[in-house]
């Protein structure tokens, strides 16, 4: 996806997703991110951040609008990876995964197992894999015609993380956004 196509996509997604992202922020008080799979090829794929809702009590994060982060170390990135087929993942794993922190999962077998867990529960997690002290919970949106894969996630300080509470909230937000995008 070229930069020209990213702007209209970003605006359409943000406009439709913003009320749902705001509700998720209000329910959690944590950073909310919206990202798409930016994948000219699986070997060069990244998570492109197209929306963000933060507040003064949210923890600082590395993401920024229009910024790109690795798929394997971010919650939204893992959620996006969980939507990919095995042949796509085979090409993705052809490139060595870089370690962002000591907790980053960089082995193919470890990440494939993590993606299988994400698929079975409906959301992906990271634990200090991008930033020490933070976890992320993210869910992919169901496929929407005309859009690349999309995921929504939150980033929470480790001490405040309650995955059993946050997972269902994020999954519901993903369902709500997908329905709103289809209706738009």
Q: What's a concise summary of this model?
A:
It contains five helices and six strands.
Folded structure, characterized:
Helix content is 41%, strand content 20%. With 184 residues, it is an alpha+beta fold. The protein has a 6-stranded antiparallel β-sheet, sandwiched between helices. β1 (31-38) and β2 form a beta hairpin. α1 (3-28) crosses α5 (163-183). The radius of gyration is 15 Å and the shape is globular.
Topology (SSEs and partners):
Blueprint: H1 3-28, E1 31-38, E2 46-53, E3 68-69, H2 75-81, H3 86-92, H4 108-121, E4 124-127, E5 134-140, E6 150-157, H5 163-183
Antiparallel strand pairs: 1-2, 1-6, 2-3, 4-5, 5-6
Helix pairs in contact: 1-5
